[in-house]
Design brief:
Order of helices and strands of chain A: HEHEEHEHHEHEHEHHEEHH
Helix content of chain A: 25-40%
Number of strands of chain B: 23
CATH superfamily of chain A: Thiamin diphosphate (ThDP)-binding fold, Pyr/PP domains
Distance between the termini of chain B: 39 Å
Helix content of chain B: 25-40%
Structural class of chain B: alpha/beta
Oligomer: heterodimer
Distance between the termini of chain A: 29 Å
CATH architecture of chain A: 3-Layer(aba) Sandwich
Strand order of the largest sheet of chain A: 3-1-4-5-7-6-8-9
CATH class of the largest domain in chain B: Alpha Beta
Largest sheet of chain A: 8 strands, mixed
Number of domains of chain B: 4
Number of strands of chain A: 9
Shape of chain A: globular
CATH architecture of the largest domain in chain B: 3-Layer(bba) Sandwich
Largest interface: A-B, 51 and 53 residues
């Protein structure tokens, strides 16, 4: 599938909607009829990226399936802030069991629907990065390996935010969390080998793997739609900035997600059957410093005793991503400082 | 309560939880003043008419335009478009071609025969407008819309003032001029031509007028004393252009020197080229950076073979030679003579050193103050408490057609307040939509469309229009380049980016509303609004 960037009009081409577009060409989020899968009144923090990402993804899945979606949720922020007993924010069938078993529960739901002959009802499982890369990892790998008909969405906010910002295996190097203090010669989280779940998912050769951010809605919705066209195990990894855990301004959520992509730190791509089929190239390249300096979890790299050496190591990660996925067109080679 | 085993509460929606109480700041929708509107001397709502044009609704766009300015086809040709200089898009790629779109709309209106809005209900008030240039015509239009009777008098045999007798036809074709003037006259205007007003008070009493708008322009070319031989042909640019407009061009010969650095100097030089001058040389005492003429006009003139002697003054005109003195700029940037001279072959010298206003008609208007050859006016354009208003080149301001149109409008509203016995009101202006309030990420890159220029070689010999218009496709493209600074264009961004679904979309043309029951005040909508039409204000606790 070829990817056409949204260039409909000179005014607001990249915006959520455009009054001059036909309704078929508009995003799900631009329409008053959208499901609002997760409703107002939820208790997510101000500017929560995960609440936004979940609505984006599930509303798109609802449109793609004519409203036939069952969602299974792992424990985590998303589950806690949406369902404080007896209230619920979910306007779709929604199931929560344990922290680690969401992929297995989703597999069970899919099997039950198959037995009942309801092939039009589709299953989406969702979890934060903790429930995906740490606690639910074994069950998820099994779900991939069996190629169960589930779209698993990970909303990655790079830590255990709900319980007080502890480190997860998705926490990036040098980031300060409650369990990786900014002390010593190598402050914050270690520079490990990382646990890159999109690539691990690809290694299972499942039909569809994609990454996205809350900063590019058109791209995210298109990927959900593509995923719903496919049967079998699918994996979508969405970067969702967390103002609380990252120490960023609540109004910067989308801006920071955009900088993660534009700096190369978070590669946005899609893969089918284990092979990368398309990448979202960088439009206005920025140095990682622009991304890092907006977040207090990296505050120890700047300020009075800055650590340019560590920033350089993080820049090397971004550069490596850019090389690995070919994120820079020749035309956008020049490093722009404006965002 | 009938609930399942071990369940004590019935399930409910989270909408019971009014998260709006968390908020310390609230987003509010605002309309900010776009820089183009702010810069327009005629006070046009440019962003407003571009918004209509973007959707291909050209008639609505034209109607929004003529709310303020009844001469779009003329403006689309002769205006020096300060709007484009102010345009925020300059900082993204290039300014929106506002002037070209304006001309497209103006031409389309003439082609389709769209009529100006109807005159207002008759007020019984009689207004005398002296001078039928851009200021007088604009005032006439707005006064008629307000329902006042207008007598429009002019000393020339046709309407248009300097637009007809000063601006050459290659910049403003006469058919266009006539079409837009006729549309105003058709609003039941009493026109009196070939009539010189000698005494404004006498004329006013005789005609029983409630107010007068004085828009006599600046018709007298300034003369300086340049020693010249008997056979040397010296003419001022105003007279020269007037004669050309009358189809009675003077014979200037092959080598024409124009003295001055304003737009009129360039009009005169380019006109001389078209009349057959092989050499048209402009002599100007300063350098290019300090010249009054618009950059565009200079570019076009140079392209047509007009040459310029910078930092020079005309010392004397002897037979077939003009003696120039070289100048240099001192530290303050003023030109000083150097004492070095050079000669220039010339058959004629055209003086374009500025224009004066003939204000002798004000002799008996005791309450009007004239200072430095210009009428002093209040912000309402009132010049005298007895109901004399003035505008255009007759008052101290930039002498352009667009400024004059703006004066005409302002004077019409000032006159309306005066004759209806109201206190003059100053309109409240919105805060400026500066570039830093925009989020330009959301705009695609799109360089501007160029208006086609006639082949240079053809242009030098005739008075055909130099700059062509935009095609519909290009006009639409150009209109859609507008960033809509400070004014919502319904991109749905706020509706889409709210993590709390606290933005209510009201539907096409109705914009949005915040649901303050659930808005937590995160401010993402403000940050991600492309055009800066939302702001955060502290919550009153």
């Amino acid at each position: 599938m070829t990817r056409q960037p949204v260039h409909f009009y000179q005014v607001g081409s990249f915006a959520v909607g455009n009054r001059l577009l036909s309704s078929d060409d508009r995003t799900v989020q631009s329409q008053r009829e959208r499901t609002n899968s997760i409703d107002s009144g939820h208790r997510a923090c101000q500017g929560c990226g995960e609440a936004l990402g979940a609505r984006y993804a599930l509303d798109a899945a609802m449109r793609a399936t004519n409203g036939h979606v069952v969602a299974v949720n792992a424990t985590g922020c998303l589950e806690v802030f949406s369902t404080p007993y007896p209230e619920t924010s979910w306007r779709i069938p929604w199931l929560h069991s344990l922290f680690g078993n969401a992929p297995a529960v989703a597999t069970g739901v899919a099997a039950a629907l198959r037995v009942k002959g309801k092939s039009d009802v589709r299953v989406v499982a969702q979890a934060g990065d903790g429930g995906t890369v740490d606690i639910g990892f074994g069950a998820l790998s099994g779900m991939f390996e069996r190629n169960d008909d589930v779209l698993f969405i990970c909303y990655d906010n790079e830590g255990y935010m709900n319980t007080g910002v502890q480190r997860s295996a998705a926490t990036p190097p040098a980031a300060r969390t409650a369990t990786t203090d900014a002390v010593g010669p190598e402050p914050g989280n270690v520079f490990g080998t990382g646990k890159d779940l999109p690539r691990i998912a690809m290694a299972h050769d499942i039909p569809y793997v994609a990454t996205a951010t809350v900063a590019d809605l058109h791209d995210l919705e298109r990927k959900v739609e593509r995923a719903m066209e496919i049967r079998g195990a699918r994996y979508l990894h969405v970067l969702v900035p967390c103002p609380l855990g990252w120490g960023s301004a609540s109004n910067d959520t989308i801006h920071i997600a955009r900088l993660a992509k534009e700096s190369g730190l978070f590669p946005v791509f899609e893969a089918e059957n284990g092979t990368v089929t398309s990448v979202s190239t960088i439009r206005r390249r920025v140095p990682v410093e622009q991304y890092l300096s907006l977040q207090r979890r990296y505050g120890h790299l700047f300020g009075k005793s800055p650590r340019p050496d560590i920033v350089a190591r993080i820049q090397a990660i971004a550069d490596n991503n850019i090389a690995r996925y070919g994120l820079v067109d020749d035309a956008t080679e020049s490093m722009e400082v404006n965002t | 309560m009938d609930t399942p085993f071990a369940i004590t509460l019935g399930v409910g929606t989270s909408r019971a939880n009014h998260t709006g109480s968390w908020r310390v700041e609230r987003p509010v929708y605002v309309d900010r003043l776009p820089p183009c509107n702010n810069a327009c001397p005629a006070g046009e709502n440019i962003q407003g008419w571009l918004y209509e044009a973007e959707s291909g609704n050209y008639e609505a766009a034209w109607r929004t335009l003529v709310e303020e300015n009844p001469l779009p086809a003329i403006m689309g040709r002769v205006c020096f478009h300060p709007c484009e200089t102010a345009c925020n898009r300059v900082q993204v790629d290039e300014a929106v071609g506002i002037n070209a779109v304006e001309r497209f709309l103006g031409d389309l209106a003439i082609e389709k025969g769209w009529r100006l809005p109807a005159s207002g209900p008759d007020t019984g008030k009689r207004i005398l407008v002296v001078g039928a240039g851009p200021a007088g015509l604009s005032a006439t239009y707005h006064l008629r819309r307000l329902g006042h009777h207008v007598r429009l008098v002019d000393s020339a045999e046709r309407l248009g003032g300097m637009m007809r007798y000063g601006i050459p036809a290659y910049r403003l074709p006469r058919a266009t001029l006539d079409a837009e003037i006729d549309r105003i006259v058709a609003m039941n205007v009493e026109v009196v031509l070939n009539h010189v007003v000698h005494d404004i008070e006498e004329e006013r009493v005789a005609g029983n007028f409630d107010a007068v708008f004085l828009a006599v322009g600046a018709q007298l070319g300034k003369r300086v004393n340049i020693p010249a031989g008997d056979s040397s042909k010296v003419i001022d640019a105003v007279t020269f252009l007037h004669q050309v407009a009358h189809d009675d061009p003077p014979l200037l010969g092959r080598r024409v020197v124009v003295y001055g650095g304003g737009d009129t100097a360039f009009d005169a030089a380019r006109t001389a080229r078209r009349l057959g001058a092989t050499d048209a040389v402009i002599v100007y005492r300063r350098n290019r950076e300090r010249m009054g003429a618009s950059g565009e006009e200079v570019e076009q003139a140079l392209g047509e073979g007009v040459s310029v002697r910078w930092l020079s003054t005309v010392n004397r005109f002897e037979g077939e030679h003009i003696v120039l003195e070289k100048m240099r700029l001192n530290d303050e940037g003023f030109p000083e003579p150097t004492g070095e001279f050079e000669e220039l072959d010339a058959d004629a010298l055209v003086l374009a050193l500025g224009q004066d206003t003939d204000l002798s008609l004000l002799e008996h208007a005791n309450d009007v103050t004239v200072h430095d050859g210009a009428v002093s006016v209040l912000p309402s354009m009132m010049a005298g408490a007895s109901g004399i208003f003035a505008g255009g080149d007759a008052v101290l301001a930039d002498r352009t057609a667009t400024v004059a149109v703006g004066h005409g409008k302002r004077a019409a509203h000032g006159i309306d307040d005066f004759v209806m016995g109201r206190e003059p009101t100053e309109k409240q202006r919105h805060e400026l939509a500066t570039f830093d309030r925009l989020n330009t990420w959301y705009y695609a890159d799109a360089p501007r469309t160029r208006r086609p220029e006639l082949e240079r070689i053809r242009r030098q010999t005739n008075f055909e229009e130099v700059i062509g218009g935009l095609s519909e496709e290009n006009a639409l493209f150009e209109a859609r380049r507008c960033l809509s600074c400070g004014n919502c264009f319904e991109c749905d961004n706020c509706f889409g980016v709210c993590p709390d679904n606290a933005v209510i979309k009201l539907g096409a043309g109705e914009r949005y509303e915040f649901d303050y029951d659930f808005c937590k005040g995160c401010g993402i909508c403000v940050k991600e609004c492309p055009c800066g039409a939302i702001e955060m204000v502290p919550e009153r606790i």
